Amino acid sequence: MFRQAILFIAGLCGCATPLMAQSHAEKHVKEGITVSVKQAAAVGDTIKVIYNYTYREKSDTLVSARWGEWPSDEVCQVISGPSRSSGQSYSFTHGTMSKSYTAGYHYKVRLLKAGKVRLPAMRASTAGGKELHSPALKLKVWKTKEEAEAATTANDILIVTLTPDKQHIRLGDSIQCELRLYTDQDVRNVLPDSLETANVVCRLQPPMRPQKVQWETTEYQGRQLRTLLLGRYTILPLQPGRLYIKPMNHRIAYQKRDHSLDLEELFHHPTGGHTFHQATVKSKVVKIWVEE
């Protein structure tokens, strides 16, 4: 699920290379050329295909670049490209500064047919005589924007758990439940659902909500995820039997950085280069035995 992305924007801004997962499909080769594109797009979309080459020595400067054959005009239309861009970044290791350069080639392509589109590989030659190449890249094109949106967010991790402190109690005891969110996304807002019980009459105390947002990092289901406490609930059963806490639906709003934008587009973008998404996440039913 997690894939590393080397992005041209990071080179221009002089910031560290981030780890990305969902917004782009990207393949790597040892020579340092990467190709990135939106992971899911729809018929009619105009996308940017970005070929990046990162190097440190002047002898590795590119002197020529060429591409394989693009798909037929029935599948996609190349509107413009390749447009050339360049950047440089600095890094420090044990007090020693190192400098790297980035050369970027951008195409704008309009997608005309649903299915898998094979984007051509880039081949290049350096001033020092090296021959480089990137892999060809396959892009899934969906029929509608709704299908593309669903595919874009399909691998986003948004998990809400309701965990009781006891699975078996005696009548007269109370139950403490903790509601948590686990995610790998930049969550901006959460609207928790109300808690409802079934089969056993209960008294519910008002939920305790955290006074301030405090994210933590933890391992959950074998992954390093961010977690947020959404609330704590106190339940007092008033009769014996099998107590059910119904699944809760939570509306979550989150944002993702659109890394298909170059630096100039990012500067003029109305949302700072972010796309916003909403999801409804359901917690699982909880079962507790109340003994008389």
Q: Would you give an account of this structure?
A:
The structure is a single chain. Helix content is 7%, strand content 57%. With 292 residues, the protein is mainly beta.
Q: Which short descriptors sum up this protein?
A:
disordered N terminus; Immunoglobulin-like; elongated; 2 domains; 292 residues; 25 strands; 3 helices
Would you kindly provide a brief summary of this structure?
By secondary structure, the chain is mainly beta. It is built from three helices and 25 strands. It folds into two domains: 3-153, Sandwich (Immunoglobulin-like), CATH 2.60.40; 158-291, Immunoglobulin-like, CATH 2.60.40.10.
How would you name the CATH homologous superfamily of the largest domain?
Answer: Immunoglobulins
Mean pLDDT: 80
* Overall radius of gyration: 25 Å
Structural class: mainly beta
How many strands in all?
A: 25
Under CATH, the topology of the largest domain can be stated as Immunoglobulin-like
Number of domains: 2
Contiguous low-pLDDT stretches (5 residues minimum) are 1-31
How much helix, percentage-wise, in residues?
Answer: under 10%
Order of strands across the biggest sheet?
Answer: 3-4-6-9-8
Work out the helix count: 3
Strand content: over 45%
| CATH hierarchy: architecture of the largest domain | Sandwich
Question: What is the overall silhouette?
Answer: elongated
Top-tier CATH class of the largest domain? Mainly Beta
Alpha carbon gap, first and last residue: 47 Å
Largest sheet: 5 strands, antiparallel
**What is the chain-wise order of helices and strands?**
EHEEEEEEEEEEEEHEEEEEEEEEEHEE
